[in-house]
Amino acid sequence: MRITKSFAETREVCSGAVGLVPTMGFLHEGHLSLIEAARNESDTVVMSLFVNPLQFDRDEDLVRYPRDLERDVALAAAAGADFVFAPEVGEMYLSKQLTRVTVNGLSDELEGPNRPGHFEGVATVVAKLFAGLQPDRSYFGRKDAQQLAIVRRMASDLSMPTAVVGVPIVRESDGLALSSRNIFLSAEERDAALALNRGLLSAADLVEGGERDAKAITNAVYFEIGDYLTVEYVTLAGQELVQPMTVLDQPGFLALAAWAGKTRLIDNVHFDRVGDGFVADRGNRLTDPSVLYATGEN
Ligand code: AMP
Predict the structure, then answer these.
(1) What is residue 59's predicted lDDT score, i.e. its pLDDT?
(2) CA neighbor of 85 nearest in space, from 153, 158, 135, 28
(3) Mean pLDDT, the chain, as a whole number?
(4) Which residue, among 288, 20, 93, 62, has the nearest Cα to 178 in the 3D structure?
(5) What would the pLDDT profile of 23-48 be if each residue is shown by its tens digit?
(6) Which of 49, 161, 168, 272 is the most exposed place for a label (fewest CB within 10 A)?
(7) What is the pLDDT of residues 279-291, one digit of tens each?
(8) Ligand 1 binding pocket, CB closer than 6 Å
(9) Smallest CA separation from ligand 1 atom 12, residue
(10) What percent of the chain has a predicted confidence (pLDDT) above 70?
């Protein structure tokens, strides 16, 4: 496993079909599932690891973001990555970044209003990764559903020759969606956070049972989580344009953000069209506790 630091060096070591997995590090099985998907479809797998200052709307969050390069490199290698591209901030942003990528409309709802500038920061760094590394395919988690929609649209609008692949959410055995931020949860907060998956599962059951009314679907989630967490939003949105829907009449996802103490959590369930109906993507559950907890960090 080699760690590369510059775009030029990384391009040089890549050959054949290149699969890119962009991450901010502190890996867990969600990231590893992206690497495995890339491994199956690529000759060279590059995982980028860059905690992107441009996408943090709260400085506190950027400083607090967990980092452990050595650990990440070992996990990425075991999952099948060939290279870890871990640029310094100075390589990524050689001089003041005057060009920004905005995908109009797709950040107006859900995460957008709560995190000003976040998606512009994400789209800009992903555009730089696509331009600088020229991957054939790139892999993103459905965990960040709005981000996935924005990256897809950006690649399509800007005629970028990179296929954007969405990968199901990986969850702990009890349903909690994996997130690098989970290490900040106390035992009580972690217990409370399980309400998120309970809520999404009851919404999934409703939809698969034929419910199409957004109010009824979102209410099922509020009912499960309202007593345990501070809810920021629960919204049913279209998969392509991330527009809120009052009726589920096209592929969509039910997304939420909630606070467990000082930790902000997001989760969702996608509703994919199958035949005349919708099937909920409940994600994939681990059987053992995540590698997040094997670090002694918590
Ligand atoms: P991050 O390091 O948080 O920026 O995430 C890097 C990539 O991993 C993004 O495409 C995320 O959507 C994806 N990801 C994060 N958590 C999960 C998860 N639990 N399951 C699947 N993908 C995930």
Answers:
(1) 87
(2) 135
(3) 96
(4) 288
(5) 999 999 999 999 999 999 999 999 99
(6) 161
(7) 999 999 999 999 9
(8) 23-24, 30-31, 33-34, 140-141, 143-144, 167, 169-170, 177-180
(9) 141
(10) 99
Residue 47's nearest CA partner among 83, 91, 17, 3 is: 83
Prediction pTM value = 0.97
Ligand 1 centroid distance, CA of 276 (Å): 30
Say whether pLDDT at 295 is over 70.
Answer: no
Q: Give which of 177, 204, 173, 180 is closest to 193, Cα–Cα.
A: 177
Q: For residue 86, give every residue at least 6 positions away whose Cβ sits within 8 Å of its Cβ, in sequence order, or none.
A: 3, 4, 5, 25, 48, 49, 50, 69
Q: Which residues of 117-224 form beta strands (DSSP E)? A: 137-141, 163-167, 170-171
pLDDT at 297 exceeding the cut of 50:
no
Place of tokens 């954007």: 164
| Token representation of residue 118 | 């976040």
Q: In angstroms, what is the span from residue 290 Cα to ligand 1's centroid?
A: 14
